[in-house]
Amino acid sequence: MGLKQKDKFRADAVRIAPTSGLTRKQAASDLGVGLSTLNKWVTAHRDTEVVSDQDLDLTRENERLRRENRLLKEERASS
């Protein structure tokens, strides 16, 4: 893998880690990197714009929908 490919992979991993809905450990496993490696990458890119505001908005919306879905399932199960 060339340097540009590695940089793109790292940037994609940093973007995916907080927006995938997976735990950081699951994301690292899916990406085939160690948890500590992914954590270092995320920390190193914390102040960059690898993760856009749109990505963060989508992540928040997904989390809200997951909570709502879980509540609806619980309500249905208790009926």
UniProtKB/TrEMBL annotation:
Gene3D superfamilies (UniProt xref): Homeodomain-like
GO molecular function, one term: DNA binding
Source domain of life: Bacteria
Pfam families from the UniProt entry: HTH_Tnp_1
Any single biological process term in GO: DNA transposition
Protein name, UniProt field: Transposase
Organism of derivation: Donghicola tyrosinivorans
